[in-house]
Design brief:
One of its GO terms (cellular component) is membrane. GO terms for molecular function: hexose transmembrane transporter activity. It is a multi-pass membrane protein. By secondary structure, the protein is mainly α. It has a single domain, classed as Up-down Bundle (Growth Hormone, Chain: A). About 80% of the residues lie in helices and about 0% in strands. The chain is built from 15 helices and no strands. It is globular and about 65 Å long. The relative contact order is 0.13.
Length: about 300
């Protein structure tokens, strides 16, 4: 729809549908990954979402390079985005359903069948036993929305919402947006600047991928936010009167790259995964939706 838009309203309508999909996709994807992944590799698989986002941003960057030189190339950018969406739709048809979701709806046999596809026959009984234990005590089929704000789940919802709010209020979107300006002042072309930021993001995502289950979620968050604080201190120092000359530019660039790197190490991938593990099964879906709503509001 955006690629074939003839006027502003057609473009806005297309972007509205894309935004709706973005609002639905991330929380469902995080929940799905958490429910189909074995506990010992859940952090690694959860980090793949951040890595995929990073690769997607870099792919969009390279596809968009000719837009300044070729008139109408922006339509090709939109057409290119059709491919991953279509592939995701196709491959999800062959993916397993969440055993947790099936079990909650009384379809135990189907849940066993899905566990067999995921883990193999020898591990089905132990997986079903853990699933049954995790569901024990969840008398109601689902939690009411009011319970998330006034019931026993309110503290966890507050923690999750605060984590997502801090993630966005850290200024990551502003850093991405103004990275070209900062690099341009250092004499680096905008295309090269975006590549540098993308590489920093990729390296941080790869670190999270290999260390999430080894170091733990809390350690990565502490290291990530600490590194981001150091990076912002470097940025603030470069903008103050304490530094002068060419060192101002280089400090600013270094601070920006360090910020992106440390964000991708923890603050980016951990919140979505951590929330899926914090909430009890009966409240998980709605609670994650509330936290993701906070995420998008603070991002806006």
């Amino acid at each position: 729809m955006s690629a074939t838009a003839k006027n502003l309203w057609g473009m806005l309508l297309g972007r509205l549908f894309v935004g709706t999909g973005m609002g639905i996709g991330p929380p469902v994807a995080a929940l799905y990954v958490a429910e189909v992944s074995p506990a010992y590799v859940r952090g690694t698989y959860g980090s793949c979402s951040q890595l995929a986002t990073c690769l997607g941003l870099m792919g969009a960057l390279f596809i968009g390079f000719p837009a300044k030189q070729i008139e109408g190339w922006w339509r090709m950018c939109f057409w290119a985005s059709v491919a991953p969406a279509a592939l995701l739709t196709l491959f999800m048809e062959f993916s397993v359903e969440s055993p947790h979701w099936l079990f909650k709806r009384g379809r135990g046999a189907d849940a066993e069948a899905e566990f067999e596809k995921l883990l193999g026959g020898p591990y089905v009984k132990s997986a079903m036993a853990k699933l049954s234990k995790s569901q024990r005590g969840d008398e109601a089929d689902t939690v009411k929305l009011s319970e998330l704000f006034y019931g026993r789940h309110r503290k966890v919802v507050f923690m999750g919402s605060s984590l997502f709010a801090l993630q966005q209020l850290s200024g990551i979107n502003a850093v991405f947006y103004f990275s070209s300006t900062v690099f341009k002042s250092a004499g680096v072309p905008s295309e090269s600047a975006n590549i540098c930021v993308g590489i920093a993001n990729l390296l941080g995502s790869l670190f999270a991928l290999v260390s999430m289950d080894k170091l733990g979620r809390k350690a990565l968050l502490i290291a990530s936010f600490s590194g981001m604080a150091v990076a912002m201190t470097i940025q603030a120092t470069s903008a103050s009167s304490l530094v002068s000359g060419s060192s101002v530019i280089y400090l600013s660039v270094e601070g920006m790259l360090l910020f992106v790197l440390t964000f991708a190490m923890g603050a980016g991938p951990v919140p979505g995964l951590l929330l899926s593990e914090m909430f009890p099964s009966r409240a998980r879906a709605k609670a994650m939706s509330v936290c993701m709503a906070v995420h998008w509001v603070t991002s806006f």
